[in-house]
Amino acid sequence: xxxxxxxxxVYKTDILVIIGGSSKERKKILTKYYSKSEIENLFENTVFxxxxxxxxxxxxxxxxxxEKPNQNNFWLSILAHETFHxxxxxMRRVNIPLSQDSEEAYAYLQQMIFEEILDNLDNGQPAx
Length: 128
Known about the structure:
Elements: E1 2-8, E2 13-19, H1 23-30, H2 36-44, E3 51-55, E4 61-65, H3 73-93, H4 103-121
Parallel strand pairs: 2-4
Antiparallel strand pairs: 1-2, 3-4
């Protein structure tokens, strides 16, 4: 299992990325950030797919991937899909709706998040 944080300082948002691991292992990592009841609520009210993006009531974002990526086209397409959700959550929270005027800001944010995730996966662990 791999986990790391991405700080999007310009929008005062933290993204917790968790890749792989069992439900129990994921919950253990989440206890560093959330109460037990918040974690149980997240897991009870979330439908998990290949990857899932969850926005916590605090504004922080959790990005869960079921398995370690092999960076093939399918995994990269899932990463693009989920980073769009992350970007949308952040931009809506700061009252920047998606429009022709704001799409470049959305695209830059998504690109930054996408690149941060790939950079952190270069060696199978967070790069710092």
